[in-house]
Every structure is written in C-alpha cells, then in structure tokens.
C-alpha cells in the first residue's frame, strides 16, 4: 500500500521536481531587486519620480509578452533550455542595470529584464506536469510554491544586508542567483517534451477560458492581499514591520502543511473539490482580516488564507496541465498565467478604491465573499470543463 502521508512521501517525487524546486529557490533568494529599481533610477541615475514611474511602466508592459514567449519556447525549444534562456536573459538585464551610468543606458536594460522576466515560469510548471502523475501534481506545485515563499522572506533579509553598501550590488547578486539556477537546471534537469507538431489554438479551448476566468478572480484577490494588507495594517495602527512577520508566518505555514497536501483525505478529493475547499479557506482568512485589529489576529488570519492559497495554486495548475495536450502544456500554462498579469494591473486600483470607499472591513469582507462565491461555482465549473470535448485539431 502506498503511503500518502508524511514528509517521506515527498521523497518519491521525481528527482526533476526536487532539482527544479532547489534551483528556483536559489533563484528566488536573489530576486529582491524590483522594489529597489525605482530607488536606483532616481538616486543613482538621477531620474525624476515621473521618469522612474514611466520606466517601471515600461518594465511592466515588457513582462506581458514574456510569459507568452516562455510558453511557446517551452513547447518548441524544450523545457530545460527555455528555463536556461530566461534566467540568462534576466542575468544580462540585471548586470546591465548595475553597470548603467545614465538613465538612457538603464532603459533598454529594464526592457531586456522585463522581456526575460517570466520566460521561465511556463516551462517550470510544464516540466512538473511532464514528470509527475496527476495525483502527485498538486503536491509538487505546492512544494514549489512553498519553497518560493520561504525564499522570498529570506531574500528580503539579504536585501536589507546588501543594501547597506550599494544598491547596485543587489542587481549583481540577483544576476548571480539567476546564473547559478541556470547552471543547475542545464546540468540536472531532463530536456522534457519539445517541438510541438503544430500550432495549438489555445485561445479556442473553452475549457481553458472558463478555468482562466475563475483563476483571474483568484489572482486579483491574491494581489489585493499584496497591495491592501500593508495599508490595512497602517489603518489599524499596527507597525509596518508586521507585514514582514505576516509574510514569514505565511511562508512557514505553507511549508508546515506540505505533508497534509499528500495526505490520503486531501488526495481523495478531485481538483474541483479541492478548489472549493481552498476558496472557503481563502474566504475565511480574508474575512478574518477585516475584523483583525492586532498583529496576532492578522497572523492567525494569514495562516488560514495561506493554506487556501497553497491549495488553490497547486490544484489550479493541475487542472490546466490536465486540460493541455502534452505537446502544448507550455502554451496552456503560459496563457493561464496571464491572469496574474491582469490581476497585477487591476488589483491596486480595486484595492485602493475599496479601501477609500468602504474601509478595511468592507474591503476584506467583500474579498472574502468573492472567494466564497468562487467556492460555490466550482461544481458548475467542473461540469462545464468535463462536458466540453478537447479542442479538435489540437492533439
């Protein structure tokens, strides 16, 4: 009988998953430069605040095709070499920014960084689907997400340490982490599936579009958390340092719950049943945010919404990987990932407007209710997805 509980079961995940998790964790440790990009542009390169804002907008626009490039390359060039190309591109952009002596030298470097910034996401997600069985994918995606969350917390500490000397060193360190990750991937990861036999009309697959619609609302809720939580803490008189504590607890909770993800009870749920559970937990945590007035209360809420978030990410990616033909997984995952680009664009506007109109309590209750509505819609989404045949001509 297969044991589905405990950390030991994670050891049976394919070696490629562990290599990818370690490599992406190393890369995430160095990914602490973006919050400092505006500071470098203004303080080091003499840009005005308006100019810095324009350059950051250019960066954001450049990231939009980045994920699409990654999906197409993953299915044609191969997973491994697409990841390597994306990481090397990021390293080039980072070093170029660090070496720039003027704003006009930094602008093309920022464009290069944006175009390479998300290339490695679709092939990373696709290679997990390639080497795992469907029953193991949620745990594999969850493990990757948890390690990335922990590495992000450690990255913040490293940024605070390196930033004492010269902010440009942050970009050099980030470039070094990208190259270290690229070497590990090139040496240890399998090549995976490559060379798609024909163009996959991803946007004509209604099943993907339905899942993407639900996923976009989830992504907006997740990004409202990123932008709205610090403002809520400020409104409630909680120290700004509380954000770091909450993020650290969230990361620890995601690691601590890993054995549960491979527990027999959770694995017995199909993807849509697990998504329902995830949205209920997310909704409960968001509503709890609205009634929190102290750091311990916010921390307790964070544990709840973090567990929901972890389940949702793993299961949603598993659904997309299941829908995709093997040769088109990169493009399917890249298309689904565009929901995060949409969320990044609209979440700050939604969050700040709701905060100004209904206050923190109204914001988080509204977000929690939205998550609960998504929970009730998952059975219908399952029926829609399963009743629709695969897109003709794509397989």
UniProtKB/TrEMBL annotation:
Location relative to the cell: Cell membrane
Pfam families assigned to the protein according to its UniProt record, in alphabetical order: MFS_1
Keyword Acetylation (UniProt): no
Residue stretches making up the Major facilitator superfamily (MFS) profile domain: 16-395
Domain of life of the native organism: Bacteria
UniProt cross-references to Gene3D superfamilies, sorted A to Z: MFS general substrate transporter like domains (1.20.1250.20)
This protein's UniProt keywords: Cell membrane, Membrane, Transmembrane, Transmembrane helix, Transport
Record carries keyword Membrane: yes
Main location: membrane
TM segment ranges: 36-61, 81-97, 103-120, 141-163, 169-196, 208-231, 237-257, 269-291, 297-321, 333-351, 357-377
Membrane topology category: Multi-pass membrane protein
PANTHER family xref list: MULTIDRUG RESISTANCE PROTEIN MDTH, RESISTANCE PROTEIN MDTM, PUTATIVE-RELATED-RELATED
Name of the protein: MFS transporter
């Amino acid at each position: 009988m297969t044991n589905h509980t405990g950390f030991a079961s994670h050891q049976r995940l394919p070696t490629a998953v562990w290599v990818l998790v370690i490599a992406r964790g190393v890369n995430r440790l160095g990914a602490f430069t973006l919050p400092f990009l505006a500071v470098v542009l203004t303080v080091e390169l003499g840009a005005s605040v308006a100019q810095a804002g324009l350059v950051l907008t250019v960066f954001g626009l450049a990231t939009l095709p980045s994920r699409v490039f990654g999906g197409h390359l993953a299915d044609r060039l191969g997973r491994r070499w697409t990841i390597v190309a994306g990481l090397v591109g990021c390293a080039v952009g980072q070093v170029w920014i660090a070496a720039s002596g003027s704003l006009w030298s930094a602008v093309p470097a920022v464009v290069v960084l944006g175009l390479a910034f998300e290339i490695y996401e679709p092939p990373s997600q696709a290679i997990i689907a390639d080497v795992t069985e469907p029953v193991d994918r949620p745990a594999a995606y969850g493990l990757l997400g948890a390690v990335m969350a922990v590495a992000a917390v450690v990255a913040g500490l490293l940024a605070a340490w390196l930033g004492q000397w010269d902010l440009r060193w942050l970009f050099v360190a980030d470039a070094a982490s990208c190259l270290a990750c690229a070497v590990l991937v090139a040496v240890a990861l399998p090549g995976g599936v490559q060379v798609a036999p024909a163009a996959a009309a991803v946007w004509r697959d209604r099943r993907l579009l339905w899942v993407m619609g639900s996923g976009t609302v989830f992504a907006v809720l997740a990004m409202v958390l990123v932008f709205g939580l610090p403002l809520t803490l400020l409104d409630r008189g909680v120290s700004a340092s509380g954000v770091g504590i909450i993020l650290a607890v969230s990361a620890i909770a995601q690691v601590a719950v890993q054995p549960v993800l491979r527990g027999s009870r959770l694995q017995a749920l199909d993807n849509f049943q697990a998504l329902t559970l995830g949205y209920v937990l997310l909704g409960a945590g968001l509503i709890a945010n609205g009634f929190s007035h102290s750091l311990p209360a916010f921390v307790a809420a964070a544990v709840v919404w973090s567990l929901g978030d972890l389940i949702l990410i793993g299961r949603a990616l598993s659904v997309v990987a299941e829908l995709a033909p093997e040769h088109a997984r990169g493009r399917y995952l890249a298309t689904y990932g565009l929901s995060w680009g949409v969320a990044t664009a609209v979440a700050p506007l939604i969050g700040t407007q709701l905060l100004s109109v209904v206050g923190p309590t109204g914001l988080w209750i509204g977000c929690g209710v939205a998550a609960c509505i998504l929970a009730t819609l998952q059975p219908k989404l399952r029926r829609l997805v399963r009743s629709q045949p695969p897109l003709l001509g794509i397989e």
